[in-house]
C-alpha cells in the first residue's frame, strides 16, 4: 500500500504539479474528498518578477475599469437625455462591468502577492456563480441593446411606443433574473460534486467548466446542463442580435444619402464592437473542453478582464453624444476651479 502511494505521488508530481509554488508537495492534493477544503489557482506565472509586473498591470487595468465605467455612468446622469433607452441600457452595462470586474480582479491581485494561491471551495463556487451570473446578464443586455438599435433605426416613428419605460425596465430585470436562475442551477449542481482529485485550477479565476476535471464524482450531467444553458444563451441571444442587425443593415442600405447611412451606422457601431468582443471570447471559453490550454487563459482574460475595460472606451469614442456629454461635464468641473 505504501509503495502504491509513493508511485501515485511520483506520477502526479511528474505530470500535474511541475509548476507548483515552492513549499507545496503533491501529497497535499491527494487526500480524501472529505478533507479537501479548497483549490489552488495557478493560471498566472509563479516567479516573483513576473508576479510583481502582472500585479501592477492588472491593478492599473482594474482602476481604469472602475474609473472608466463610473465616469460613463456620471456622464449619462449629467446628460440632457438620461432617460432614453440607449442611455439607460448603457448605464446598466457600465454598472454590470464594475460588478463583473470587482468579482474577479481583486482575488487575482491577492494571489499575485501571496505565496499560497489557495481559495476555499465555498469561495470558489460563490465566485463562479457571480462570474456566470454577470456574464449571462451582459450577454442578455447586449441582445436587448441590439433590439433597441433595431427599433430606433427601423421604426423611428414608433420608437417611443416600442421601447417604453416599462418595457426597458422589464428587459433589464428579465436579463438579471434569467442569468441569476441559470447561474443558480449550474452552481447548485457543481456544489453537489465531490472533489478528491488534484486540486490545481489552471486558471486565474473560478469558472464552472474548470471544476469538472477536479471532481471524482460523475460530472456528465453538470456538463450537459452547462452545455444546454450556453447553447440557449449563445444562440437565443445571437438570433436576436442577428435578426436586429439584418434588419438594420437592410434599412441603412435603403437610405439614399451617404450622410444618412453614415449617421445610422454610427449609432450601432460601438454596440457591434462590444458584442463581437464578448461573444467571441466568452462563448468559446464555455464551449471548449477544459484541458489546461493557454487559449483558456486567453479567452478568460479577454471576457473577464479586458471587456469591462474596453466597453466604456468603445462607447465613449464611438458615440458622439457620449463624447459631447463628457466634454460638457469636464468643462463644468474646470469652471468650478
Could you characterize what this model shows?
The chain starts with a helix and ends with a helix. Helix 2 (48-78) packs across helix 11 and helix 3 runs antiparallel to helix 10. The chain is 74% helix and 3% strand. The longest helix is centred in the middle third of the chain and has 34 residues, at 121-154. Strands 2-1-3 form a 3-stranded mixed sheet. The protein has 337 residues and is an all-alpha fold. The radius of gyration is 23 Å and the shape is globular.
Instruction: Work out the helix count.
Output: 11
* Contiguous uncertain segments of 5+ residues: 1-35
Q: Give the fraction of residues assigned to helices.
A: over 70%
By DSSP, the count of extended strands is 3
Structural class comes to mainly alpha
- Rounded mean pLDDT is 77
Oligomeric state: single chain
Report how far the terminal alpha carbons are from each other: 77 Å
Quick one: biggest sheet?
3 strands, mixed
Strand-and-helix sequence, N→C? HEHHEHHHEHHHHH
| Beta-strand fraction estimate | under 5%
- Strand order within the widest sheet? 2-1-3
List its traits.
mainly alpha; 3-stranded mixed β-sheet; 337 residues; 11 helices
Secondary structure elements and pairings:
Layout lengths: L1 H14 L22 E4 L6 H31 L6 H29 L4 E3 H34 L4 H4 L2 H27 L8 E2 L6 H4 L8 H34 L4 H30 L6 H25 L1 H17 L1
Parallel strand pairs: 1-3
Antiparallel strand pairs: 1-2
Helix pairs in contact: 2-3, 2-10, 2-11, 3-4, 3-10, 4-6, 4-8, 4-9, 6-8, 8-9, 9-10, 10-11
